[in-house]
Amino acid sequence: MGCCNRRCGLIAGAVFGAAVAILGGILIPAGNSIIKGTVHKEAVIEPGTTAYDTWTAVGAKVYRQFWFFDLKNPLEVLEYGAKPAVVEKGPYTYRTRYLPRENITFNPNHTASFLLPFGAIFEPSMSVGAEEDLITSLNLAVAGAYSLVPTPLHGVLEKMIKDTNSSLFQYRTVRELLWGYNDPLLKGRVGLFADYNDTYDGYYNVFTGKDDISKVGIIDMWRGSKSLRFWNDKYCDMINGTDATSFAPFVNKKKPLFFFSSDICRSVSASYEKTLDLKGIEVYRYSLLESTLASPTVNPDNKCFCTNMKTTKNCSLAGVLDISSCQDGRPIYISLPHFLHGSQSLREDVLGLYPDGEHHKTFLDIEPTTGFTLNFAKRIQVNMMYGPSKVITVLKKVKDYTLFPLVWLNETATLDDETADMFKKELISRIQMLEIAQQALLGVGIAIFVLCLVSYGVVKRSSRQSHIG
After folding, report:
1. What are the annotated disulfide bridges (predicted)?
2. What is the mean pLDDT of the chain?
3. What SS3 class is residue 367?
4. CA–CA gap between residue 201 and residue 245 (Å, rounded)
């Protein structure tokens, strides 16, 4: 009777263990469904969700750091046609994006419209010097006029340059170069970002994800249009992806992420590079591929971005993007800092450039479950083109078209410790607890089931031997 009770108990234990294991197995898809549903709900851009709170908040500190290229041999360039030799000077740091989105409007087609205000506040403690520091750089007015004024009228431009005592290079403060100064040649305000402060980017129209979470954050329209009007090409004028602040949840690292940047007047994609730990949170690092700014001879998709055969050496020049079409014709070229991934000739024409992949690439660190960007560094270099002239005195010694690097910027932000702790508490820890419960039930159930079955076999064998004896 004792053996029977023991065997019955072990059978019951095995059944119980199997039931616990089955429960753990059931909890895995059920738990995943709960997690998925919760994340989808909180990722929608509408009042009351985590995504909306993050989207409208201005707590995260975004900085723009500027490194200028200080010209060391202006006289040699002017008088003997020497190659410009530059030294990097910086950073000069400003806090940006400290103003909330304005005119937020939710539309019937599950989109939200808004304006993104611009502003910059100097941060002396994060800078190498004051805004009054002087930089020897390219004369923005002369270089701009050289490209904008037709060649037959260069005689008139030469007279204007002489009458205003202008030259190819100038000595200006950091503040003047960035935010503008009154130029005698153009008789107006000139600066690399003269129109930045107290202006807006947008209107943006983005999908809220209410009807389709895979579309959350994707730009539907920018400045009232579903495509750009800069490149005269359907492909290059496409607005793809989000603004890079977030992406659809449950990121698949095998697929690229697309985003639009008004700074470079085009959409780009970033690809998975590696998985990192950011303050206890697992993130996927995405970075731009070398092919993003490759010449059309290497990446045919870039053919429609090549708009000037002469200055781009028959579209064979790699690493730069001519954005004059969205800069009112000004000869502005965008690249990665120090012409990273650019043609070797770019670094041969200007001395003192040393590209470094780790310090000069653009990257995004994405939390894969929510799709939120928790850390990023957008690195862009601003260059201007000037070339030879038989009429303009300050350009007579110039041998060929030259892309002069003016400044490179690093726009960066990362979540602070408090936000990281909240993120881990509200999301990561709950997911981990559910996963632990799933695994524990499955593991304990299987262990009980196996232990009871083995014990049952031992008891049965022992009982059979005792009957034989």
Report:
1. 236-304, 265-326, 306-315
2. 85
3. coil
4. 15
